[in-house]
TrEMBL record:
Any one of the GO BP annotations: non-motile cilium assembly
Protein name: TTC8 protein
The organism of origin for this protein: Atrichornis clamosus
Record-linked InterPro entries: BBS8, TPR-like_helical_dom_sf
Composition-biased stretches (Polar residues): 160-171
């Protein structure tokens, strides 16, 4: 057998083929570069592992945050590591708590009871005859055996939550529970919104991943790829509809109002805030630019 032929070299004596920088050494049990390993975790829906690997990349020194992946001939592909890791971690944290807005409307007990189409309980004046009450007859006096507000006789034994802490009417039962974001009684939808807002505290013990109060939304609105991932993180993970609406408005203005995706997101923010007329306008405007099934379903909800 003859010896294998040596690899061809350039004029300067360098080997042909892919050249990896010093910060691209294989890492992890899979033998992949950390960024590709995090992307592999994301594709296999292992979002917690993906976020952990991205956190390790973001903790690197500033000198290792710019990476040159491959050099072939006259073409050099430059990749900014910190932006890729930041974007990937943002998407991973969003996918961990993502809930489809179309399938979120589950009819619970509160939605069935709180019906807008109610029948008047009291007749209009002059439309009915006043009948004598049944308690005016020869029945026993209520003073003999006192009763509660609901009409149950008070016995010699007091059970918990039967006399003092139990509401007597449906209005009193739904009057106290309220969320921190709205004055609407707790339903399946409002309870889900509150659970989405606490996801940042549950998944990040050290605090939120992104400090929204110090974020320059105008700067990120000019970067479409980062802006879309940041919007979904703010809307689904942080449940901050106001900042999400501000980012979507700045991004659609930067896109010269030609991007239908941002119009749908603005409509979702308006729908979450209860501005249904404005949401309807945004969905109809998005349908004029791009006919999508999701947009039609959002419009049907309005």
């Amino acid at each position: 057998r003859s010896a294998p032929a040596p690899a061809r070299r350039h004029r300067g004596g360098r080997r042909r083929g892919p050249r990896w920088s010093s910060c691209c050494t294989p890492a992890g049990a899979m033998g992949l570069e950390p960024l590709f390993q995090a992307w592999s975790y994301f594709r296999r829906r292992k979002f917690r592992e993906c976020a952990d690997v991205c956190s390790q990349l973001l903790e690197r020194p500033p000198g290792e945050q710019i990476i040159y992946l491959v050099s072939r001939g006259y073409f050099t592909f430059c990749f900014i590591l910190i932006q890729a890791a930041w974007n990937l971690k943002t998407r991973a944290l969003t996918e961990m708590v993502y809930v489809d807005e179309i399938d979120m409307d589950q009819e619970g007990i509160a939605e069935m009871i709180l019906d807008e189409n109610a029948i008047a309980q009291v007749a209009r004046p002059g439309t009915s005859l006043k009948l004598p009450g049944t308690s005016q007859g020869g029945g026993p006096s209520p003073a003999v055996r006192p009763v509660t507000q609901s009409g149950r006789p008070i016995t010699g034994f007091v059970r918990p939550s039967t006399q003092s802490g139990r509401p007597s009417t449906m209005e009193q039962a739904i009057r106290t529970p309220r969320t921190a974001l709205t004055a609407r009684p707790i339903t399946s939808a409002s309870g889900g919104y509150v659970r989405l807002g606490t996801a940042s505290m549950l998944t990040n013990p050290d605090g939120p991943f992104i400090n929204l109060s110090r974020l320059n939304l105008t700067k990120y609105a000019q970067k479409p790829k980062l802006a879309k991932a940041l919007f979904e993180y703010i809307f689904h993970h942080e449940n901050d509809v106001k900042n999400a609406l501000d980012l979507a408005a700045l991004a659609t203005e930067h896109a010269q109002f030609k991007d239908w995706w941002w119009k749908v997101q603005i409509g979702k923010c308006y729908y979450r805030l209860g501005l249904y007329r404005e949401a309807e306008k945004q969905f109809k405007s998005a349908l004029k630019q791009q006919d999508m099934v999701d947009t039609i379903l959002y419009l049907a909800k309005v």
